[in-house]
Amino acid sequence: MANLGDIGSGLTSSGHGLPAPQKMRSEGARTLRAGFIPLVDASVLIAACEFGFARSEGLTLDLVKDVSWANVRDRLAFRQFDIAHMLSPMPVAAMLGLGSNPSPTITPFSLGRGGNAITLSNRLFARMVEEGGLEGAENALANAQAFAAVLGRMKANGDAPPTLGVTYPFSSHNYEFRYWLAAGGVDPDRDVKLVVVPPPMTTDALEAGAIDGFCVGAPWNMVASERGVGRIVAAKQDIWPSAPEKVIGMRPEWAEANPETVSRLIVALDAAARWCDDPQNRDALSEALADQRYVGAPVEIIRRVLSGEFTIDAQGQRRVIDDYFVFHRNFANYPRPSHALWIYSQMARWGQADLGPEATTAAASAYRPDLYRLALGADAAPAEADIRIEGASAEDRFMDGHVFDPAAIEAYVEAFPVRAEGGATASGADN
To answer: CATH says 30-112+244-304+326-406 is which class?
Structure first.
């Protein structure tokens, strides 16, 4: 396994407090072109641009809204972007050489935790109520089991399997949807059809009947429920609260050639993440995100999403999820290699990657806590080891009770009763 020990405390350019909005660095400004997808989990990157945190570190962020994760991946690889808002598994997949255009990618900074949910069509949920005896207030596992009961009846009737949307084959959404399905006894590769749908298109696709459900980031689940076309049946926190979500991706050779810029960027993002975590700033953040240049969703929906207040169905039933978004607290920005290794375990579980020592080292190398510590100092990092057992505590458990030990990945994968047999393929085309 890669040696990812502390390389030193490093120096911060402006400490850990919020930077003064008008402060400029003596080195002069540098423009970084950054790709992003219109999602609330891009908040830290957008806030760094809109509220002066990047400028305080002598940086200008040129944010470019894109339409798909494959575009973001390719434009970073082809040097149209310097950095990018990326799915947490994308750097891992890149370092493993997976996908149609695997260009080495690392992340020194996580953009926070939370934000995903699973939404099913009203028709499917009505059948879950009928077949599974749901009363509307069940937890994620009960919902998954009820979904399995519906699939059993559909198979008996000779019906076509439901079509479910994820945003990208190497995505937290794909692995979380699969985890939820499998926990209920559903085989994602045999019992349903998984397809790739760009996040902003998911609600329209559900309403049109092109898909029967999806797992995507905020605000698109709430947009679907507010429009009365879907029911939210599970959130990211239900599946695994600490699951990494989005990260800042960059090419390793670019990071090596621009070490000061990387450190200044991390300092700016750290300050922006602290600002985003403060409830007093939610109104300002919501207004910024609602702009058509960024997320372009109704400001009231964004405000409620940031507060974890959900309308889960067309009847107006609500759910409040504490810490639905965590942008900074509890080391949410720390790029922990054991998180990268859990992602790798899911790639292996579903037949996307082979297990082995070299692949394990490559997967862990995608997450770079050394660059985080170099920019912010050793005191900004958690005291515990970078590679730790995940899901062992009551407040951080997986929905099915499994515990992930990075030292025993093969045993972990083999312990799941539902997993790929003989090499399943990634859901949807890698495009």
So the answer is: alpha beta
